[in-house]
Amino acid sequence: MKLSWATPEIDALPLEQWERVFAWLAENGYAGIEPIISGVYKTPEDEILSLLDRYQLKITGFRTGGIAKAHHVAFNDPGAEVRLEAVDRFNQVVQYAAVYGKPKMLVGLMQGMLADGQDIVIAKEHIRECLEICCDYAQTYAIEVDLEAVNHNEINYHNTVADVAGFIRTMGKDNLHLLIDTYHMHLEESSIEQAVNAVKGQIGHVHLADSNHMIPPTGSFDFPAFFRLLSDAGYHGTYTLETMSDMTEENITQASQYVRGLVK
């Protein structure tokens, strides 16, 4: 199985510290990292690539929520200029991402929170228009875009897997797929089994976090049942630990040992 770890921005830590983290990940059989990103990193690309190569790791995806947080832009923004900036910044990151191969572009918070009184139909049309441009641009680099169902505390629509899967089906973009996250599913889904079974064939990426948003198995989420569902659904992609747990050797090791014990 391919296991990845969600990390801070590359610029957040010195390369010496990244080397320690990469060593821990490599020792525990991880395939790579999934950093948050707000724009092109200041750390030289060749230095990042060299370090990744040394530990046989890849960047499996970029979490684009960093763009929304750092620059206060979103695809659903009522302002056309803000939406244009959101698209431009996203596509700049796509171009940058291509340096590292074909990491997935992961879209959650970039959808944007609905403002008071904002029409949901119009907001979704804005998202559709932005995603069409971004998916087409990503396709020129053969890069996949994955859209995430996010819990209601962070986005006040597109909260369930069914919501997002239905929206993706209306888009008709071959490189646009579904990102599911166990933490958000725990908060929003009445039935994890029904949610997963309804989107077989649409899942492009999976985030793992327990019910407490920490590494498994520290909460109450039923991971054994979840992994059986994913196996039955034919999912063979990357599983990324995206949690609030510290990026320590102990947590990296514990998460890997637990997940690998469930996914054969």
Brief characterization of the structure:
The N and C termini lie close together (7 Å).
Number of helices: 10
Oligomer: single chain
Tell me about the biggest sheet? 9 strands, parallel
End-to-end Cα distance = 7 Å
Please list the strands of the largest sheet in the order they lie side by side.
Answer: 3-2-1-9-8-7-6-5-4
What is the CATH architecture assignment?
Alpha-Beta Barrel
Mean pLDDT: 97
Order of helices and strands: EHEHEEHHEHEHEHHEHEH
The tally of domains stands at 1
Give the uncertain stretches in residue-range form.
Answer: none
The beta-strand count equals 9
Strand content: 5-15%
Q: Examine the coordinates and then state which fold CATH places here, giving the name of the CATH topology.
A: TIM Barrel
The CATH superfamily bears the name: Divalent-metal-dependent TIM barrel enzymes
Q: What is the CATH domain class? A: Alpha Beta
Helix amount: 40-55%
The gross shape turns out to be globular
Radius of gyration: 18 Å
- Computed structural class: alpha/beta
Domain Xylose isomerase-like TIM barrel: 22-256
Pfam family, one: AP_endonuc_2
Protein name: Sugar phosphate isomerase/epimerase
GO molecular function: isomerase activity
What this model shows, in words?
This protein has one domain (2-262): TIM Barrel, CATH 3.20.20.150. Helices cover 44% and strands 15% of the residues. The termini are close together. Strands 3-2-1-9-8-7-6-5-4 form a nine-stranded parallel β-sheet. The mean pLDDT is 97. It is an alpha/beta fold and 264 residues long. α9 links the parallel β8 and β9 (238-241).
